[in-house]
Amino acid sequence: MDKLHYLRSALTETATQMLLGTEGMSYSQLLARIQSRYGNQEMEAKHLTELQCRRRNKGESFRELAQDIRRLMLLSYPNERSSMSENMEKEYFIAAIDDPELELKVREKEPKNIDAAQNYAQRLEMYKGAVHQGHRRYARKVAASPDSRSSSIEERTAKHDYSRSKSRQQHDESSSQSSHRDNEAHLSTKHNKKEGKNDDRRVCAMNVDEK
Question: pTM to 2 decimals?
Answer without folding.
Answer: 0.50
